[in-house]
Each structure stands twice: as structure tokens, then as C-alpha cells.
Design brief:
5-stranded antiparallel β-sheet, alpha+beta, 434 residues
């Protein structure tokens, strides 16, 4: 038994050696080896000559951020592919020569595929820096290029095409499923990247923040909607059947998600009309108050000055009363009350207080300068109030009322005007001993 296996193995070895000797001693084989080596050496020389010139051409000036400079920097990233791609092109030309002269080009064709594999490997290792793209290139592109270089990629694709994967009544080939996963990952990564670039470009345009945010949201829906439809087309799913299913689901969701739909439409109205925008300080009829931190499709986030976030449905901004203090640029009038002694010459007080309050940082002279008014005669003193305009609200980092009260105190002390405090008269009756 053992001698039989040995004899069989020896026969196969002898046949293999004879085939290799016959194949290697043929002129067509040596010519292909020579052309392959010559193509690589010529590509090496050309790459060393061309690469410095291309690098100088694709390197913009420091600080240049124009679109052409960005495109040049992007193209410069692919310089490591110059050598394997030049070798691939020259080898492809050599393959045409050998096939026309000898009718064979298997060796040089294998070399050509190897150069393409080296280009894919350089792309994954030296060029791509984004983690997702590098992962995809390392574990998808490079293995596929390796199978192509070995010449077994068509057989592997045929095997995957014949393998059926079923989910309920829906069946896919393994190849279609893998293609869909890869295409979906690429499409939605590209959609995310496109959305961030679009949002950045729109954010630099001169327009109202609400309109800007609405355009950003519309662009986001359009980008990802197009990516989804394109993915369905790649996977071979009929969009007609998808539309029928979507219509049935939409009717059901319309009854169950009326509140969400109402909030979404209210959000669009808010963004279009601009009644409130990011940065405004608002107070709702229900008592919620804070600065608008973010406006989303369904709700608006208010941030209070003690660090809490309040999520308010957009519908509340439409159907209830909202007080907008317009912290993002509008002026507000505040008031500070004080009292002086009955011994004071009250005719001096308005001029003293208005001059002092006008010097407080943050107090405006428009639409009106500070105004001091007599409000009444109290139990312990004469009551005044000074009205003044500021930009913003009196909370958080702004301490307008506190600063004005400090200024009032210092001004009254500087002019020897007494600030009263409650007095009580105690009368003792009965004439008892002290």
C-alpha cells in the first residue's frame, strides 16, 4: 500500500518537472520574463523622473485654501501609486506584443495582475487614512486583488453566485449580499461625508440661521434618500414593490405617529418663519425657559443657565404662547429699584443716578438712555426706579442689574445721600420704674 502511494507521487513529480522544463525552455516563456522585468525597470526609471515633478506641481503654497489647492493636495496623496500603475500599463503593452508574436502571454499577464495587487496594497497601507476606508480597503479590496492576481477570482465569484441566502421568502445570492453590504457601507459613508461637506459650505453662506439649518436638513434627507435608492437598485430590489410596501406602511404610520408628524411640520414652520432661532432665550407658556441650544426635526433643546437641557416638542412653539427675549442680538429693558431718605433733595437724584448707570458696561444709550423715575413715598424712604436698556438677558454671564445696583450705591454714597432702612418707634406706657 505504501509503495503504491510512493510510486504515484513519484510519477506526478516526474510529470511536473517535465512540464516545468518544457514550459521554461520555450522562447515564449523567456521573452515574457524578459518583458516583465524590462517593464518593471522602465517603470522604476520613469517613476523616479516623473514623481518629483508631479510632487512640485501638486504642492500648493502654504496657507492656500482654495478649491484648486485642495484638489491638488488630494491628487498628491496618490503619488505612491505611480510606480505600480506605470508597471501595470507597460506590462499590459508587453502582453499585447507577446500574444501577437507567440500567441501566449500567461506569464506577463500574471505579472500585470501582481502589479495591480501591489497598487491596491499601497492604497490600503500608504494612502487611505480614514479608518473606515482603510478597513474596507485592507479586508475587501486587497483580498479581491489577490484573488484576481492568482487568476481564481472568476471561479470564486461563480461559487458565490450559486450560493443562495434566504430571509423568509426573499432570496439573494451570496455574491449579491456581499456586493450590497460593501456598496451600502460605501454609499452611506460617502453620504455622511457629503452631508458634512455640504453643511460646512452652507454654514459659511450669509443667511438666517433658521434657513441655513433647514437647508442643511433638506440636503441631508436628499443625500441619504438618494443613497438608499441607489443601494436598492444595486441589490436588484424592485423600487415598484418597495413603493407599494412603503405606501401601506405610510398609511399605518400616519395614524399612529400623528404627533411626530405634527412636530416635524411645526419644526419646518419654525425654521422658515424664524420666530425663534438658535441662541435666542425663550420662555414658553408652560414655564420652560432657556437658550435655544439646538433645533431638530422633532423637538427643540433649551439649555438653562444651570446646565440642564429641556427637550420641547416643536408643536409647543406653534400652538402655545412663547416669549422670545431674543438673546441673539435684540435689546431688552431692565429695571432696578432703590430708595433714598426723606431728608434728601430728590430733585438731584435723577441726574446723579442716570449719569452713574450710563457708565456701567453693557448699558446702552439706544433706543433710550437710562431713565430714573420717582415711584412713590414708602414707609421708610422715597422710592425710585431706574430703567435701562441692555443687549441680552440678565442671567448667566450677564449681571446687568447687579452692576447697576452697585453703581447706584456708589453714586449715592459719593453724594452723601442716605439709603434708608426701616425705623421703629417704641412707646412705653404705664410709668413703671426704669
Amino acid at each position: 500500500m505504501d509503495s503504491t502511494y510512493v510510486e504515484t507521487a513519484r510519477d506526478y513529480a516526474v510529470q511536473g518537472v517535465a512540464f516545468a522544463q518544457d514550459w521554461l525552455l520555450r522562447p515564449a516563456s523567456w521573452s515574457q520574463f524578459a518583458l516583465l522585468i524590462g517593464a518593471y525597470l522602465l517603470a522604476l526609471v520613469l517613476a523616479r523622473m516623473i514623481a518629483p515633478r508631479l510632487r512640485a506641481l501638486l504642492t500648493p503654497e502654504d496657507g492656500n485654501t482654495s478649491i484648486f489647492a485642495t484638489a491638488r493636495r488630494f491628487a498628491r496623496m496618490f503619488l505612491p501609486l505611480l510606480l505600480p500603475l506605470l508597471a501595470y500599463v507597460l506590462t499590459a503593452a508587453g502582453e499585447q506584443v507577446t500574444r501577437s508574436l507567440f500567441g501566449s502571454g500567461a506569464i506577463i499577464a500574471f505579472g500585470k495582475r501582481v502589479f495591480l495587487f501591489l497598487a491596491a496594497r499601497a492604497l490600503a497601507r500608504r494612502i487611505l487614512t480614514e479608518p473606515f476606508l482603510r478597513f474596507l480597503a485592507s479586508y475587501v479590496l486587497v483580498p479581491v486583488a489577490a484573488l484576481y492576481a492568482l487568476g481564481i477570482l472568476p471561479a470564486v465569484m461563480t461559487l458565490l453566485e450559486g450560493t443562495v441566502v434566504g430571509v423568509g421568502s426573499i432570496q439573494f445570492s451570496a455574491l449579491a449580499l456581499i456586493r450590497g453590504l460593501i456598496a451600502g457601507a460605501l454609499l452611506f459613508w460617502f453620504g455622511h461625508w457629503s452631508n458634512s461637506q455640504t453643511a460646512g459650505y452652507i454654514g459659511r453662506q450669509p443667511m438666517r440661521p433658521a434657513v441655513r439649518q433647514l437647508i442643511v436638513k433638506a440636503a441631508e434627507f436628499a443625500i441619504f434618500g438618494f443613497a438608499f435608492l441607489l443601494l436598492m437598485n444595486i441589490m436588484g430590489i424592485s423600487l415598484t414593490s418597495l413603493a407599494v410596501i412603503g405606501g401601506a406602511v405610510g398609511v399605518g404610520l400616519g395614524f399612529g405617529l400623528q404627533k411626530i408628524a405634527s412636530n416635524f411640520i411645526s419644526g419646518v414652520i419654525l425654521l422658515l418663519e424664524g420666530q425663534a432661532t438658535v441662541g435666542d432665550y425663550v420662555e414658553l407658556d408652560g414655564g420652560e425657559a432657556g437658550r435655544i441650544h439646538k433645533m431638530m426635526a422633532r423637538a427643540t433643546i433649551l439649555e438653562t443657565y444651570d446646565g440642564r437641557w429641556i427637550v420641547v416638542p416643536n408643536e409647543d412653539f406653534i400652538v402655545t404662547r412663547v416669549t422670545n427675549y431674543s438673546d441673539a442680538g435684540s435689546n431688552n429693558r431692565l429695571e432696578a429699584k432703590f430708595s433714598v431718605s426723606y431728608d434728601t433733595d430728590i430733585n438731584r437724584v435723577p441726574d446723579i443716578i442716570c449719569a452713574a448707570v450710563a457708565q456701567v458696561p453693557g448699558v446702552l444709550n439706544t433706543p433710550e438712555p437710562p431713565d430714573c423715575e420717582l415711584r412713590g413715598f414708602g414707609d421708610s424712604g422715597i422710592d425710585f426706579a431706574v430703567e435701562f436698556w441692555v443687549e441680552g438677558i440678565d442671567d448667566g454671564e450677564n449681571k446687568y442689574t447687579s452692576d447697576v445696583l452697585f453703581a447706584i450705591w456708589n453714586a449715592l454714597k459719593a453724594h452723601d445721600i442716605e439709603i434708608p432702612y426701616p425705623h421703629r418707634v417704641v412707646e412705653i406706657k404705664g410709668g413703671g420704674p426704669l
